[in-house]
Amino acid sequence: MSVRKKAVVLVSGGLDSATVLAVAKTQGFDIHAITFDYGQRHRFELDAARRVCDSQGVEELVVFKVDTSIFRGSALTNDIPVPHNRDESQMSEGIPVTYVPARNTIFLSVGLGLAESVGANDLFIGVNAVDYSGYPDCRPEFIRAFEAMANLATKVGVEGHRLTVHTPLILLSKADIIRKGLALNVDYGLTHSCYDPLPDGSSCGECDSCQLRLRGFREAGVEDRIRYGR
Hints:
- By secondary structure, this protein is of the alpha/beta class.
- It has a single domain, classed as 3-Layer(aba) Sandwich (Rossmann fold), CATH 3.40.50.
- It contains eight helices and five strands, in the order E-H-E-H-E-H-H-E-H-H-E-H-H.
- It is globular.
């Protein structure tokens, strides 16, 4: 009887991570999902992460709590206004105020610890370097550097059991990500992407993340079934 390989998948509750979770499952991995409570200004994405994992039959979701005091100067964790209604040229200029300091480095490191603990040599993360994200920790060169570090810094890596960081969406447009997810029966109505949701959980429709999501659904030619307050 063959033993199925294990993978750790970082799940935020957003569109991209829901798609990556489905990709990992179709590749035959047993999934250990992990999401992060890092002091984000709302809890809706944590609820969405649970919904997404439940819908895809993930047996284990680890909720890892990060000390909120380490993340400063970000509109996602501090009392800083989230930009609204920016056009594409504005979104493509520099690193946005919604960048959370070293977030993916920290999250991947925690995921790496879980992976080595459960005997998984594969980590999946839904980073994307297209659609004007502007985040330095979503670039292919960052992922390559982290993977090299992971294989130098772990017992399994040193012993020759190579660790791989999978980024199946990194060069896809948002529309292509949506098409891929729909082909894998991802229910995007369960996800949450908004940086600045209304009190009832409706998405604002105006932040960078909402605008990129809405454009992706338009270009994919399908309806986005989440609630928008504006």
